[in-house]
Specification:
single chain, 450 residues, alpha/beta, seven-stranded parallel β-sheet, binds uridine-diphosphate-N-acetylglucosamine
Length: 450
């Protein structure tokens, strides 16, 4: 069974790694190493930088993509349209049985739309389905809603996803609560991140006192910020920066800034609020220190050792609760309500007073991990089990069964196929199975009559 797996942007890479590994594991058990499930990795190139893309392939041990579309940046319409144009050719040439998309980025939506209009169309599987912020101003919310409504198989990370999809009328038999593949990756690499040298590289240890004790790590906060609503307009960005000044005066804030944010800071002339030291700093301890985005292992190491995480990212909220590091989310809502349950993550909003209050509250909080239901490192295995259960019987098996049925019925093949045509679904996978079921039912009917 051919499975196209699509990645495009930074938050996709850690979600597909475990699925690829689970496919390899499935193949090795199912047929002594033969490729029962044949993955084809497609990278749209929505993110293309060394820091936004390549570093993740290296850190996560991902295979080189089989197909790279190289779409790059653009407005939403240009980027989405360009992905669709290039991805259609991929589907025509490879005619997969299944296409897997993850998350909520433009690549997710674009590829789901293309697949939905193919004839015959592959099954569309959406990993991280059902999340809703109910905020249609977020581009990702449109991507989520449309992708879910195009998908045949919806893999859900948290209970709210089940509720949302049921409310939107998606049939329950298409929906599978499997857990979170991003957390599969976090658990897989949890030990490896301790070997990262990012903390010493940034000079976050107090100088060695020569007293035999290990150097101590200075408390620091970790900040990420990239949502268009938070960074594109000067006033909105300034409000957040002002809201963080109290924190910045008492502890250093490490800020690996997304390219979009870096360019906005310069365009808005807000450089004075930041320090730009990328390496060991001799006079640290306060201020917002802006550095380039980090690879996966360095970034998780920074999250794991932070006193506090402040972010507007979706995925980081989930990672912070699993690492047990208190988090303030710089948004008015979250599509991931499970992260709010124990208070390890709180919504700080985007106004300075609310941010200050949330930061004070979370600084007073002790570290404690929260592992939501099914976030046990096995989500990808569950997904692959479901995908494999839809494995088509080889077409020649269907034909052979139809021929036998026709012989028993004393009719010809085309008459038999016409009588069973009403069972056929538009999905190529379904049609093979339905042909076999139709033929078998016809035989049973004849045998009963005799
Ligand atoms: C995208 C996703 C968002 C996700 C985020 C993570 C959509 C709608 N948004 O937003 O959900 O949280 O990725 O990073 O899909 N850029 C570079 N180098 C790169 C990639 C982008 O410099 O490798 C610059 C581009 O020039 C562009 C800006 O960053 O101006 C934004 O990139 P884009 O992919 O359009 O959206 P993100 O803001 O990254």
């Amino acid at each position: 069974m051919k499975i196209i797996i699509v990645v495009g942007a930074r938050p996709n890479f850690m979600k597909v790694g475990p699925i690829l590994r689970a496919i390899t594991a499935y193949n090795s058990v199912a047929a002594q190493g033969s490729c029962v499930l044949q993955p084809i990795l497609v990278h749209t190139g929505q993110h293309y930088d060394a820091v936004m893309s390549d570093a993740f392939f290296t850190d996560l041990g991902l295979p080189k993509p089989d197909i790279f579309l190289g779409v790059g940046s653009g407005s939403h319409a240009v980027q989405t349209g360009e992905i669709m144009r290039r991805f259609e050719q991929v589907l025509v040439e490879s005619s997969p049985d299944v296409m897997v998309v993850v998350g909520d980025v433009n690549s997710t939506l674009a590829c789901a739309l293309v697949a939905a209009k193919m004839n015959p169309r592959p099954m569309i599987a959406h990993v991280e389905a059902g999340l809703r912020s109910f905020d249609r101003d977020m581009p990702e919310e449109s991507n989520r809603v449309v992708t879910d409504h195009l998908a045949d198989l919806l893999f859900v990370t948290e209970p709210s996803g089940l509720t949302n999809l049921s409310r939107e009328g998606i049939p329950a038999e298409r929906v599978f609560f499997v857990g979170n593949t991003m957390i599969d990756t976090l658990l897989t690499f949890a030990k490896k991140v301790d070997a990262s040298e990012v903390l010493s590289g940034l000079g976050l240890y107090d100088p060695y006192q020569g007293n035999g004790h290990r150097p101590t790590l200075r408390p620091y906060a970790l900040l990420t910020l990239h949502r268009p609503a938070n960074v594109d307009e000067r006033g909105a960005l300034l409000e957040i920066i002002e809201g963080l000044q109290e924190l910045a005066s008492s502890c250093e804030i490490i800020f690996p800034a997304h390219p979009r944010t870096q360019s906005r800071i310069h365009a808005h002339g807000l450089e004075a609020y930041f320090r730009f030291e990328a390496h060991q700093d001799s006079a640290p301890a306060s201020g917002i220190r802006l550095i380039d985005p980090k690879g996966y292992l360095d970034f998780v190491c920074l999250m794991k050792n932070a006193r506090l995480i402040v972010t507007d990212s979706g995925g980081i909220q989930e990672e912070s609760i699993c690492l047990g590091v208190p988090c303030v989310t710089l948004r008015e809502n979250t599509e991931r309500p499970v992260t709010l349950a124990e208070g390890i993550n709180v919504l700080g909003g985007v106004r300075r007073d609310g941010i200050r209050r949330a930061v004070r509250q979370q600084l007073a909080r002790k570290q404690s991990t929260q592992m939501p239901e099914m976030w046990d490192g096995k989500a990808a295995g569950r997904i692959v089990e479901v995908l494999a259960s839809f494995m088509p019987f080889p077409h020649n098996h269907a034909s052979a069964l139809e021929q036998s049925a026709a012989a028993v019925l004393g009719t010809d093949m085309s008459t038999l196929q016409e009588t069973t045509a009403d069972r056929q679904s538009t999905a190529s996978v379904g049609s093979t199975v339905d042909r076999m079921v139709g033929a078998a039912e016809a035989v049973i009917r004849v045998l009963r009559l005799r």
